Amino acid sequence: MATTSGRPGIFAVRDVRSLITETAEEGHGLKKAVGATQLTAMGVGAIIGTGIFVVIGEGAGIAGPAVILSFVLAAVACTFSALSYAELASSIPVSGSAYTYTYATLGELVAWIIGWDLILEYGVSVAAIAVGWGGNLNAFLDAAFGVALPDAIAKSPEDGGIFNLPAVFVVLAITFLLIRGVTESARVNLVMVVIKLAVLLFFIVVAFANFGTGNFQPFAPEGVDGVTAAAAVIFFAYIGFDAVSTGSEEAKRPERDLPLAIIGSLIICTIFYVATATGALGIASPQQMEGSDAPLAAALDQGAGISWAAAVLALGAVVAITSVVLVIMYGQTRIFFAMCRDGLLPQRLAQVNQRYGTPARLTLVLGVLIAILAALVPLSEIVKLVNIGTLFAFVLVNIGVIVLRRTRPEMPRPYRVPWSPVLPLLGIAFAIYLMTDLPWDTWVRFVVWLAIGMIIYWLYGYKNSRLRREQSSTPNWAREHDPQRPEDGDPS
């Protein structure tokens, strides 16, 4: 796909050494400030949100008590992709997550597609989660104090309000925290993670203190089909571990910290999820949880007789969702930052603030746009794009591990996926299986979004790509005789 002038084609790949070198550039390098504990907390912060507080009821309604197995199955499905993320994050400690890994393995066009996909996935996700935060804040105020914000300023026009003020507030608050610095953001997230784990631990202790086995019969009323169907729903309660990899460039010891954080956060969340599901079924029937918007609070109220539990669980949900907004929005800014630094989007937005060590201008722009989205735009349908976007990223990351093992076998890999390519192939299979279960209209919207992205790429990204500019300014004879030149020609 290379042109006659020697310009790299659309499938040219970035050399890993070049990507890592760019992280030390003045004005474009992020500060290395977070360790394994903070990165693990970021993973837990992104994963544990409304999923466990809400989706457990839906899963129990599908699989019955066997929903416990559904939680385990969903965790296994995520593990294959998590291992691939761990290998690439430790080998390519550069911001951008799946976008950067794809650029280094499958080429610029595919990287643009996944980057454009992730912009939508993370942006819509943050806006939707912020709307959910406002709803849970009202639930907490009502449960604890008997008051609630009026619908006019607590709901979007889609839901009968005028302006969703709580959603705007939480997005802008998180925006300024992220501008302030990654260290400060990681510390605040760690505190919130401790609080929400404490709330779940409170639920588990109370549930097991009042535990009974009557609700476990029959264990799997819908058989294996029920377990797998519930796992497809519950899978999305685990999404978020991939956000850890967006912090690659800011990790103090990425070769060690990133694999620990990605895999560790998934293990911690699985343990809490299984214990929570088991405890809930020990005090409430699947039907009781399925019929409630707050299944854990309903289980404590009806099963353990603790009527004030709703306030505790509502507080836990507010803190949990705040933490998710923080980590997912952090991931959004780092992916956008990587694309800007590569020239596929305006490069001036990749400027790092010298005082805070963060891409402050870019973070502010994204924060304002997401706040407007959360306040006014109907999200009920486009939020489904989060699921397909995430699964698409999982597919490409697993492919990236297989490709990089063949094209760069000598590259240092502090962590290696065991039994490759078998486990990455299983990760691809699970992701594709879950993608096929998504509604047809979600696929249509996804294709339309990618088509818009392709237009932007041809009009701006292709012409301004840093890779293309740098190689075009280097004479052909110099590239041919440079023993250190990146191997980024077009494979076709």
UniProtKB/TrEMBL annotation:
It comes from the Bacteria. The keyword Magnesium does not apply. Its main location: membrane. The chain crosses the membrane at residues 36-56, 63-86, 98-119, 126-149, 161-179, 191-211, 223-241, 262-285, 305-331, 362-379, 385-405, 417-436, 442-460. InterPro entries: AA/rel_permease1 (IPR002293). Residues 473-492 are annotated as: Disordered. This is Amino acid permease. It comes from Paractinoplanes pyxinae.
